[in-house]
Amino acid sequence: MANEYVYGKNSCLSLIDKGKDFINVYIQNNYLDKKILSKLENNHIKYEYKDRKFLDKLTNNANHQGIVIEVEGYEYTPINELLNKIKDVENPLLLMLDGIEDPHNLGAILRSVDAVNAQGVIIGKHNQVPLNSTVAKVSTGAIEYVDVVQVTNLTNTIKLLKEKGFWVVGAEANESCDFNTLKYDFPTLLVVGSEGKGISPLVLKQCDYRVKIPMEGHVNSLNVSVATAVLLYGIYLNRRK
């Protein structure tokens, strides 16, 4: 498993707060963020000062904000471990992503998942962006708190979840009802597909419900991370009622 470089203030703060083991911590010369420095020192974490060119090279010229932490590659949560973890949760909410290839979208989605306190995200091994440093940066630390499961076959995983009592809700524009019409008073697996292709046919066939976001403007679609946030908050607010 290749090492990853996590960068940016919020992402690095989350790593430090979680007590992760670091391989290396690099700080830009003349770094002035006292909060980061005090946390590193209070946790007895060693760090090295480097010039900006060094950090730019590690992050492919990303906006690293003067701090880069080298860690082992991101680990995924096994599906059985996640199911055991949520076995006592009443009406758990899981999100399945089918073919999300943009790391910025995945990072933003993880941020929304954490915000509504959903229990986890399931992604496929193929045609899907994996967890990486860009995802971590965009998630602003949420990647450290959200359980992400990577599976070989999404359809088989859905069948397993159905056996565990989950109902499957697919985000699909055609032949669908307004997402607000459901009560979501059951263990819910929300499935979201890519912007271009949507949910793949085999996965869509497994959905118990198909829902859509009503829109009245001139465009007929939303960015997938925005749409996912709307759906997650719809479920969250519906359940709060």
Q: What is the string of SSEs from the N terminus onward?
A: EHEHEHEHEHEHEHEEEHEH
Q: Number of helical segments? A: 9
Number of strands: 11
Helical percentage:
25-40%
Contiguous uncertain segments of 5+ residues: none
Strand order of the largest sheet: 7-6-5-10-8-11-9
Mean pLDDT: 93
| Rg | 19 Å
Oligomeric grouping of the chains:
single chain
Counting helices, strands and paired strands, the structural category is alpha/beta
Major β-sheet profile: 7 strands, parallel
Task: Give the termini distance in whole angstroms.
Answer: 44 Å
Share of residues in strands: 15-25%
How would you sum up this structure in a few lines?
It contains 9 helices and 11 strands.
Written description of the protein model:
With 241 residues, the protein is an alpha/beta fold. The protein has nine helices and eleven strands. The protein has helices spanning 9-18, 34-42, 52-58, 79-85, 103-115, 133-139, 154-163, 201-205, 224-240; strands at residues 4-7, 24-28, 48-50, 67-71, 93-98, 120-124, 148-151, 167-171, 177-178, 188-193, 209-212. Helix 5 packs across helix 6 (133-139). The longest helix has 17 residues, at 224-240. The chain is elongated, with a radius of gyration of 19 Å.
